[in-house]
Specification:
FAD/NAD(P)-binding domain; 4 domains; seven-stranded mixed sheet; Alpha-Beta Plaits; 25 strands; alpha/beta; five-stranded antiparallel sheet; 16 helices; 553 residues
Length: 553
C-alpha cells in the first residue's frame, strides 16, 4: 500500500454541514481520501498520496465556492471515522435528548455515523427544561427582590412591592423555550440526526422497539436522565406535594414551606421561597448538613441558613405525613421526642432516581444496581458490550457538564474512534450550590483526604479578610484550601462566598493540573475580586494575612 500523508487545509466560507459535504466531495475528486471537513473549525483534514497536487486541491475547493487559506502537513493521527455497518438501521442509537445525549450524538455524527435519537417527552433533558436554567433564573429573581428589601448599605432607601410571580414564571418559561429551541431542537437538523418520538424498550441485546417500530443499532447509548426520588414516608402518597419541577411553576408563594431533604436542591429552593417571604423548614434524616464540606465550612453554611430565618431539623425520623384541609402535617421523631411540623406546602427534594423503568434492560442483558441504574465500567460500557451509558442515569455527579463530558466519551468509546478506549475521569469535578452566598467545592475535603490516608494541611480564610467582601458589605463566608504536607500540591478547595461558582473554576484548574500552594501565592491576583481570596487563602498557610497590606502577599 502506498504511504499517504495527512494534510490540513484552512477554508473560509463554510457555514453548515452541507458545506462540509461539498468540500469533502471536491477534495475526493482531486484525489484525497478520508476527508473530514468541519465548518465550525473552518478546516478539512485528509489523506493523500505522495504525488497529490496541492494546487489541484485548492482549485477544487475554489470551484465549489469556498476559499482555501492555507494547507500543511500534520503529524497527529487522523481521527477514526465510524465504520459503516449496512446490517443495522443506525450505527449509533441514543436514548434520551439531554446534554449527554446531544454531546454523544454530535460526536458520533462528526465521525460519520448514522445516528438516531429517541425521546419520549420534551427535547432537551433536565437542565434546560426543569433544572439548571429555570432554577437559576428564578433564584436570581428572588435574590434581586430580597436585595431590594434588605440591602447592606446604610443610606440606600430601597424597597420592593410583593413580587408578581406569574410574570416571573412566564419570563422563566420564555427563556427555557428559547434556549431549548436554539441549543437543542435546532441542532437535530443541523447535524442530520434522526429524531424518533416514543418510548424505547429493548426486545433483546440487539433490537429496540419504539412504538410500533423495531430498529437495530450497532451501538446504543442510554442517556435517559433521572427524576426526583420520592421517599417512602407513610402518608406521603396521600397528600399533594411539590417537586423541584412544580415548585418553580408556583405563581403564589406558600406561607410555610416544609422541605423534605437538605441537599443542594433543598437549600437552593428553600432559600428561594424564603426570599419571596415564605417561612421555610428543612427536615433531614442525617445529623450533618452538607456532609461533603468540612466542619468549618459546614458551620458557616448553618449560620447562613440561620441568619436567613430558615429552620433546619436534623436527625429526623419520619413517622407519617397527613393533610387536613390546606394544612400539611409532617410527624417526625427527633432525639426521642415527637414533633409535628405544620405548613401549607411540602417540597420533596430527597435525591434522584434513574429513568430506566421502561427500558427493559434485563432483555438487553444490562446489569443494574440497587436503584435500577445501569452499571458500567470505566469506559462507560455496560455488561452488554453494545450498550453504553452517560449522564444523570448513572447516578454519578448530577451536573450538566459531567453529562456532556460523559456523552462525548461514551460515543468515542462505543464507535472506537480513538486508538484506545478513554476512561472517564471524575476525580476533579467542581460543584456549586447557588444560594446566597453561594457554596462551591472541588477536589478532596480535609476529611476525605485523611480518610484516603493522605498527609494534608489546610488553611481557613474568613471572608472578612477579602477586600472584595468588605467593599460589598457581605462578609459571611469562608475559603478553605487543602494541600499535601510534603509537596504543597493543592488537593481541594471549598468556598462560601458571593460568586463562589466563578472562584471555584480557578481552583478546579489548580487541583486538576497539580498546582502547589507556592504556585498560587506567586501568581498575580486581580485586586478587589473574590477570586483573590484563593491567593489569600494560600498565603494563610504560612502568614497572618490580617497583618499584610493590600496586595502585599
Amino acid at each position: 500500500m502506498t504511504e499517504q500523508t495527512q494534510y490540513q487545509m484552512d477554508i473560509q466560507g463554510m457555514t453548515c454541514t452541507d458545506c462540509e459535504i461539498h468540500v469533502a466531495k471536491a477534495l475526493e475528486g482531486a484525489g484525497a481520501s478520508a476527508v473530514r471537513a468541519n465548518f465550525r473549525r473552518g478546516e478539512a483534514i485528509f489523506l493523500a498520496a505522495p504525488n497529490f497536487s496541492l494546487d489541484q486541491a485548492r482549485d477544487a475547493v475554489k470551484a465549489v465556492g469556498y476559499h482555501p487559506r492555507g494547507i500543511r502537513e500534520v503529524t497527529a493521527a487522523l481521527p477514526k471515522t465510524a465504520v459503516s455497518d449496512p446490517t443495522v438501521d443506525y450505527e449509533f442509537v441514543v436514548i434520551g435528548s439531554g446534554s449527554a445525549a446531544f454531546a454523544a450524538a454530535i460526536e458520533a455524527r462528526g465521525a460519520g455515523a448514522r445516528v438516531a435519537m429517541i425521546e419520549r417527552g420534551t427535547i432537551g433533558g433536565t437542565c434546560v427544561n426543569i433544572g439548571c436554567v429555570p432554577s437559576k433564573t428564578m433564584l436570581r429573581a428572588a435574590q434581586i427582590h430580597h436585595r431590594a428589601v434588605y440591602n447592606p448599605f446604610r443610606g440606600l432607601q430601597t424597597h420592593a412591592a410583593a413580587p408578581d410571580l406569574a410574570t416571573v414564571v412566564a419570563e422563566k418559561d420564555a427563556l427555557v423555550e428559547s434556549l431549548r429551541q436554539h441549543k437543542y431542537v435546532d441542532l437535530i437538523a443541523e447535524y442530520d440526526i434522526d429524531l424518533i418520538r416514543g418510548e424505547a424498550r429493548f426486545l433483546d441485546d440487539r433490537r429496540l422497539q419504539v412504538g410500533e417500530r423495531v430498529l437495530t443499532g450497532g451501538r446504543y447509548l442510554i442517556a435517559t436522565g433521572a427524576r426526583p426520588r420520592i421517599p417512602e414516608i407513610p402518608g406521603l402518597d396521600q397528600v399533594s406535594y411539590l417537586s423541584s419541577t412544580s415548585a418553580l411553576n408556583l405563581t403564589t408563594r406558600p406561607e410555610h414551606l416544609i422541605v423534605i431533604g437538605s441537599g443542594y436542591i433543598a437549600l437552593e429552593l428553600g432559600q428561594l421561597f424564603r426570599q419571596w417571604g415564605s417561612q421555610v423548614t428543612l427536615i433531614q434524616r442525617s445529623s450533618v448538613l452538607m456532609a461533603a464540606y468540612d466542619g468549618e465550612v459546614r458551620s458557616v453554611i448553618a449560620d447562613m441558613l440561620h441568619d436567613a430565618g430558615i429552620e433546619v431539623i436534623h436527625s429526623a425520623t419520619y413517622e407519617r405525613i397527613e393533610e387536613r384541609g390546606t394544612e400539611k402535617r409532617v410527624h417526625v421523631t427527633v432525639g426521642g421526642a415527637t414533633r409535628v411540623v405544620r405548613g401549607d406546602a411540602i417540597l420533596v427534594a430527597a435525591g434522584r432516581d434513574p429513568n430506566t423503568e421502561a427500558l427493559n434492560l434485563a432483555a438487553a442483558g444490562v446489569t443494574v444496581g440497587a436503584q435500577h441504574q445501569p452499571l458500567f465500567d470505566e469506559h462507560l460500557q455496560s455488561s452488554n458490550p453494545r450498550v453504553f451509558v452517560a449522564g444523570d442515569v448513572t447516578l454519578g455527579p448530577q451536573f450538566v457538564y459531567v453529562a456532556a463530558y460523559e456523552g462525548k466519551i461514551a460515543a468515542r468509546n462505543a464507535l472506537e474512534l480513538g486508538d484506545r478506549a478513554t476512561a472517564v475521569d471524575l476525580e476533579v469535578v467542581p460543584a456549586v450550590t447557588f444560594t446566597e452566598p453561594a457554596l462551591a467545592k472541588v477536589g478532596l475535603s480535609q476529611d476525605e483526604a485523611e480518610r484516603e490516608g493522605l498527609a494534608v494541611k489546610s488553611s481557613v480564610l474568613p471572608l472578612e479578610a477579602v477586600a472584595r467582601a468588605l467593599a460589598n458589605r457581605e462578609t459571611r463566608g469562608v475559603i478553605k484550601l487543602v494541600a499535601e504536607v510534603d509537596t504543597g500540591r493543592l488537593r481541594g478547595a471549598q468556598v462560601v462566598a458571593e460568586n463562589a461558582g466563578e472562584v471555584i473554576y480557578a481552583a478546579t484548574l489548580a487541583v486538576k493540573h497539580g498546582l502547589t500552594v507556592a504556585d498560587l501565592t506567586d501568581t498575580l491576583a486581580p485586586y478587589l475580586t473574590m477570586a483573590e481570596g484563593l491567593k489569600l487563602a494560600a498565603l494563610t498557610f504560612d502568614k497572618d494575612v490580617a497583618k499584610l497590606s493590600c496586595c502585599a502577599g
